[in-house]
Amino acid sequence: MPTTAPATHSLGEVTASDSTLRRFLHGLPGVDTVGLEARAASLGTRSIKTTAKAYAIDLAISMVDLTTLEGADTPGKVRALGAKAVHPDPTDRATPSTAAVCVYPDMVPAAKEAVAGSSVKVASVATAFPAGRAALDVKLADVRDAVDAGADEIDMVIDRGAFLAGKYMKVYDEIVAVREASGAARLKVIFETGELSTYDNIRRASWLGMLAGADFIKTSTGKVAVNATPANTLLMLEAVRDFRAQTGVQVGVKPAGGIRTSKDAIKFLVLVNETAGADWLDNHWFRFGASSLLNDLLMQRQKLATGRYSGPDYVTVD
Amino acid sequence: MSEKSDKTEQQRLSVFKTYKLYVGGKFPRSESGRVYDVTDSKGKWLANAPLSSRKDARDAVVAARKAFGGWSGATAYNRGQVLYRVAEMLEGRREQFVREVADAEGLSKAKATVLVDATIDRWVWYAGWTDKIAQVVGGGNPVAGPFFNLSSPEPTGVVTVLAPQESSFLGLVSVLAPVIATGNTAVVIASEKSPLPALSLGEVLATSDVPGGVVNVLSGRTAEIATPLAAHQDVNAIDLAGADDVLAKELEIAAADNLKRVLRPQPVGEVDWSTTPGLDRMTAFLETKTVWHPTGALGASGSSY
């Protein structure tokens, strides 16, 4: 299945104007929906057992962006989350730390303090998350706030309204502006795939995000009905693979929302390995946006270590 | 159609029943895809039953845990009504259970009927206890201080029940009903040799307002399923009624790790399921919560009221 962009384009010229960008995005090959879903489903049937499973669980733990994005977040909750991110299982110090904690901008200072001295990064959502319905200068101020507070990573949302209305250049310019405002922080661009309606749109959004300089492309906010699915993640993995083949630039992928069990997480890792390749099997290039997933991974890890099934009484209540 | 079959009365094709597990309110096959032959007391094949694996056991515990909040939180009165409804449904399927019990235990139809009737009565008996047990084993305690001191029984949580091996239906209900009457949820391992009445009971439960996951029925090798369940950290108690001495000891050791409540089996010869059971099987899986409620500072009159 050819998924690359037409080779005649030089990607530099693509973003020259609204019309060239539109021509490029609409020139991307259409997605074979049935084939995509069947491929994602068939890769989900791989049996990962014993040592491979132990490796996959530790890898998945190290890839978790431990997330709390509630109106009810308190500094205390964020501190607890930070402590959990650093030592997910205090009874077993061999458990790897998670990749990051992901919080709202005003909670960044509390999160920074909680993970100080560890490898855990602090990611902050910004740009009027989750709806993204605000003026550009408000969004940029939101981003600068988070960066000034010390966020290592910025999770921005695209303007889905503009995207669906076909104003691709507006979306592009916004991502570029946020990219600049983020400075040294890595930028994750959230498409909210559940609101983009079609796989073709997800492919277009992926290329648009990557052209605008995203360090990561991320499926969803976790705030709508449909979040990360194997199929839409597979599609995005194909996009980052093809983007690197064409430009040499590697972009990360972050499925977020709806991944709750170790089994699901391992399916996603299989997708990564079989689609993008082993280069992406690292928390610098692949993340899970999740909260309850970590507990299930820890329970599975305890099961492998002790031979006994564990239970929710033996992990934290978040 | 040949002419021959037109003459004789037409033979109907047998409609064999596929017995399945009952987990989380659904009827799955074993995750392992395995089945085993179930025979009657004379060795004649009756049906294939699912041969559950430890993963089925794990799934059953997840379902039971999920159902625990709702079931233990339901009013005792409501639980009683639901359990009585189960008895009503059992009554409607009386013929089927008589046949299955007769086959499983090698009894005449008359004897099996007596057993099934006793079983349904047993279920009604426990249904009646749901909103009475608290008065009997709980209550106010006289304490030397200005407190109301109240004790009330609370369900333990997820209980693994090894159903008796010999008594496939009366024995099963006699160990299952007391567990769920008080608000626990159960993972039941059916009699290894005769699991069919237990699997059919799952169908009754599914059609009688018992929320999915409150009772989960597994069939297969008792030792194979019970071992991971006894060690499972999310199981709060285990009833070893269906274990022999060797297995019971092994399971009790495994159960010690997270301090499960363990109900030891009675010696096989000494069990008579037909006698009135008493409260022991209910209280075995209850915990007592005691609340000290201050009555306030005593005023000059001797009371603040």
UniProtKB/TrEMBL annotation, chain B:
Top-level taxon: Bacteria
Keywords: Oxidoreductase
Matching Pfam families: Aldedh (PF00171)
InterPro entries linked to this entry: Ald_DH/histidinol_DH (IPR016161), Ald_DH_N (IPR016162), Aldehyde_DH_dom (IPR015590)
Ranges for domain Aldehyde dehydrogenase: 32-262
Stored PANTHER family: ALDEHYDE DEHYDROGENASE-RELATED
Name assigned to this protein: Acyl-CoA reductase-like NAD-dependent aldehyde dehydrogenase
Lineage: Bacteria, Bacillati, Actinomycetota, Actinomycetes, Kitasatosporales
